Amino acid sequence: STGMSKKKISKAIFPVGGLGTRFLPATKAIPKEMLPIVDKPLIQYAVEEAVEAGIDTLIFITGRNKYAIANHFDRTHEIEQQLQERGNTEQLERIKKMLPEHVSCAYIRQNAPLGLGHAVLCAKQAIGDEPFAVLLADDLLDSGTPGCLAQMVNLHQQTGNCVIAVEEVEPHKTDQYGIVEIDHQSKMASSPIIRSIIEKPAPDQAPSRLGVVGRYILTPQIFTLLEQTAADAGGDIQLTDAIGQLLSQQTIYAHNFGGKRYDCGSYEGFVDATINFALKRPDLTEVIEENVLEIHRKIMAARKERVERWIKQLRQ
Ligand code: G1P
């Protein structure tokens, strides 16, 4: 099974309808994709990555709180005018440039919380008969240029096939991600062919440590398969299950994008991303360095105290 038609990838789906329960109360009135890393919401990083990859139609699959995202990507003439009057040109440029003129947004309501597969299926009519991208904005990628999605679009343009981004995950974390098994003959290639895929296997069930990152290039055949996919035990229609079915019809590549994924759907990833993205900013480096030194001093002092207590106990 080889390449489908090599159409341009112009549309991207952003599923943003999740409840974001892990980040309550921060996500009470906004989707988790609106949480900022330093000064930009997660969704904006993903949108910029998509625009860089040549996407011109952004399709947001929204749940409750959809207005925060729609408002974010609207032109805000009042703010622009105010900044203009105050001569704040730097900030003015930052919000003006948010979306280039040729990019448009569409919002589709996901009216039932049936999981990622269902969210993607909601975009069926809007996508039509062409390959498209899916970006999960709570995966924040640090990959240099070209970004992950641009790399994947390149690979699609050369082959016509589906592409899924992957990253090696720690052995005990296989149950947090889709895990792919790679075709042995293509193992050495930078983008090997996927042989099988399974959603969140326990470490002892995982066929590998290659975890799916939230960036996909899919062909419209996926919609038919999603329509036939039953909900899992948790009531979710899994995109992973439909991709598993697609594997018997088409070649799908695993793309190792050569960067780091911050899983900002977890506290750990969110904090890690905040520190590392702040470190990229010259104006914040100093304050982080000072804090890190101070934290290090405290950790060392606490350790010393523990060891002294332990020695004292041994002597008694
Ligand atoms: C989803 C997918 C999973 C993938 C992950 C990437 O899981 O189902 O296969 O590895 O995104 O972030 P979720 O994060 O929605 O639980």
Write the layout of secondary structure elements.
Blueprint lengths: L10 E6 L19 E2 L2 E2 H11 L4 E6 L3 H8 L3 H9 L3 H8 L7 E6 L6 H6 L2 H4 L4 E4 L3 E4 L5 H12 L2 E7 L9 E5 L11 E6 L10 E9 L2 H8 L10 H8 L5 E5 L3 E4 L3 H13 L2 H34 L1
Helix pairs in contact: 3-4, 8-9
The structure holds 1-O-phosphono-alpha-D-glucopyranose (G1P).
1-O-phosphono-alpha-D-glucopyranose (G1P) binds next to strand 11 and helix 9.
Outline the structure in words.
- This protein is α/β, with parallel strands linked by helices.
- 38% of the residues lie in helices and 21% in strands.
- It contains eleven helices and 13 strands.
- The strands form four sheets. It has a seven-stranded mixed beta sheet with strand order 5-4-1-6-11-8-12. A two-stranded antiparallel sheet has the order 2-3.
- A hairpin with a 2-residue loop joins strand 2 and strand 3 (40-41).
- Helix 3 (77-85) runs antiparallel to helix 4 (89-96) and helix 8 (221-228) crosses helix 9 (239-246).
- The longest helix is centred in the last third of the chain and has 34 residues, at 282-315.
- The structure holds 1-O-phosphono-alpha-D-glucopyranose.
- Residues 116, 136, 139, 177-178, 199, 211-214, 239-240, 265 line the site of 1-O-phosphono-alpha-D-glucopyranose.
